[in-house]
């Protein structure tokens, strides 16, 4: 891609000060590439925990609602492609089967019938997917299509970096339970294999008090056993 203005617009994504500015810069980059709407989703995997996900989308709200209500994500060929490959995928009718053709029909209805999806697999921990769409088709093998692939790859990488800085820390913090100092202390000793009675002696409190705090920890961590609580707390960085 040799359009320096377009490249500058795309690269500026990494300079966004907050999520609102990031979305605006993403959309500017999408439009600089000749498309109308963009979508970026990131998934962060955590040991022994459910992955956390975040999506920033310029797609029409009505389309997003249909996509969610009909669970299109389970049969979307662009999602399946981006889970396993970082090669750009230019959308085409042939990639939809009888189970997923409805997605193409709805996409066309909302002016999202043509586009491209590309993934960034930074590591086993963080993966992201970037899609750009428009109503007009691309000519296969054209300069425009090549420019789209090159620009989308740069924009996807820039978005991935910016999301890691601006959004991922908040995502993880929002999903991390807040424990009181006493709960953390009790959990520390639980992780050492100590019983409520032993912990009570160490802390000079009653066994019922320790049991109360440990029960709260299990509830906050959404686990059913002390061993699960200790493992999850370590994974979340709540205890060493």
Automatic annotation (TrEMBL):
Known InterPro entries for this protein?
A: Sig_transdc_resp-reg_C-effctor, TF_LuxR_autoind-bd_dom, TF_LuxR_autoind-bd_dom_sf, Tscrpt_reg_LuxR_C, WH-like_DNA-bd_sf
Q: Where is the HTH luxR-type domain?
A: 172-237
Asked if the record carries the keyword Nucleus, the reply is: no
User: Which biological process terms from the Gene Ontology are attached to this UniProt entry?
Assistant: regulation of DNA-templated transcription
Lineage top rank: taxon: Bacteria
Keywords noted in UniProt: DNA-binding, Transcription, Transcription regulation
Q: State whether keyword Magnesium applies.
A: no
An example Gene Ontology molecular-function term: DNA binding
Question: Gene3D superfamilies annotated for this entry?
Answer: Transcription factor LuxR-like, autoinducer-binding domain, Winged helix-like DNA-binding domain superfamily/Winged helix DNA-binding domain
Q: What protein is this chain from? A: HTH luxR-type domain-containing protein
The organism of origin for this protein: Ramlibacter tataouinensis
